[in-house]
């Protein structure tokens, strides 16, 4: 049977397409690119203006048109609804994957018989998991290819719960959503900020090194360098960190704690 395969993120999309090629399957892949674990969700299924504004603040120097990205995601979800083919949603143990699963289920609520899933297990990883977290993009194509035979329908009861949880997360509109104990847990930006400050060095250190150490230390979140560097810049604006070099790029600046008494 052919499926429309749905994954979260470009890396996962590339890996899954490689797995399909290895298995000589012509199935299409839909890649939803938004990292739903961070930022406001309130208008994500309508105008998306608040959410696109958030991403513009996170990545102000990128060429990405975030408003267009929001519209594209809604168009992709609409196309899924209008198609007749069975859908297979691939998800790992990460907040972004789990939120993507819930969002797709919510949008396909009128066609529950078409919804299938592949829930990847941490034990299938060929690399160490990051704090019991793993996204689909972290698995090898060969590992994903072995799972085509395990695509399974989602029960109506589970579909109802997943769709409800999406609505609740949108309504709650937390700053961040963590994946802990198989549950989505809301958190504030200050949760991330506290970890940054715990790891912020007293001496000048390459920003990429600081951000990298924080990315691996946030329980329940596979944080991107974009997001962590944005929180660093917010802490600079609050006077808690200082920066020298070109703040436009993670690779061209250094960070340290504010020593008190004037900026750099």
Short description:
This protein is an alpha/beta fold. The protein is 41% helix and 17% strand. The protein folds into two domains: 3-172; 188-257, Arc Repressor Mutant, subunit A, CATH 1.10.10.
Description:
The longest helix is centred in the N-terminal third of the chain and has 17 residues, at 66-82. The strands form 3 sheets. The protein has a 5-stranded mixed beta sheet, with helices on both faces. The chain has 2 domains: 3-172; 188-257, Orthogonal Bundle (Arc Repressor Mutant, subunit A). The protein has 9 helices and 10 strands. The N and C termini lie far apart (61 Å). Helix 1 links the parallel strand 1 (3-8) and strand 2 (29-32). The protein is α/β, with parallel strands linked by helices. It has helices spanning 10-22, 49-58, 66-82, 95-107, 141-145, 156-172, 189-199, 207-215, 225-237, and strands spanning 3-8, 29-32, 86-91, 115-119, 152-153, 176-180, 183-187, 205-206, 241-245, 253-257.
With strands numbered from the N-terminus, the spatial order across the biggest sheet is 2-1-3-4-5
Major sheet attributes: 5 strands, mixed
Distance between the termini: 61 Å
Number of helices: 9
User: Helical percent range?
Assistant: 40-55%
Question: What would you call the structural class?
Answer: alpha/beta
Order of helices and strands: EHEHHEHEHEHEEHEHHEE
User: Roughly what is the average pLDDT, rounded to an integer?
Assistant: 95
- What's the domain count? 2
Shape: globular
Residue runs with pLDDT of under 50 for 5 or more positions: none
Query: How many beta strands in the DSSP annotation?
Result: 10
In what range is the share of β-strand residues? 15-25%
- Whole-angstrom Rg: 19 Å
């Amino acid at each position: 049977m052919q499926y429309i395969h749905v994954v979260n993120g470009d890396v996962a999309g590339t890996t899954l397409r490689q797995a399909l090629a290895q298995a000589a399957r012509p199935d299409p892949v839909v890649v939803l690119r938004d990292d739903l674990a961070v930022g406001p969700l309130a208008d994500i299924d309508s105008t998306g203006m608040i959410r696109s504004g958030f991403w513009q603040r996170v990545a102000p120097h990128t060429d990405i048109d975030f408003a267009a990205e929001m519209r594209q995601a809604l168009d992709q979800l609409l196309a899924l609804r209008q198609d007749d083919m069975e859908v297979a949603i691939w998800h790992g143990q990460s907040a972004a994957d789990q939120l993507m699963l819930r969002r797709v289920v919510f949008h396909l609520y009128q066609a529950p018989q078409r919804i299938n899933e592949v829930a990847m297990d941490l034990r299938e990883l060929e690399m160490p998991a990051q704090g019991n977290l793993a996204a689909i993009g972290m698995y090898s194509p060969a590992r994903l290819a072995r799972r085509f035979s395990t695509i399974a329908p989602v029960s109506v009861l589970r579909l109802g719960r997943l769709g409800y949880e999406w609505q609740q997360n949108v309504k709650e509109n937390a700053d961040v959503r963590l994946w802990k104990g198989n549950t989505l847990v809301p958190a504030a930006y200050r949760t991330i900020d506290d970890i940054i400050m715990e790891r912020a060095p007293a001496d000048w250190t390459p920003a990429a090194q600081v951000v990298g150490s924080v990315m691996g230390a946030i329980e329940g979140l596979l944080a991107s360098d974009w997001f962590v560097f944005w929180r660093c810049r917010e802490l600079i604006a609050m006077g808690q960190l200082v920066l020298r070099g070109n703040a436009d790029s993670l690779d061209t600046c250094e960070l340290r704690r504010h020593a008190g008494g004037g900026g750099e």
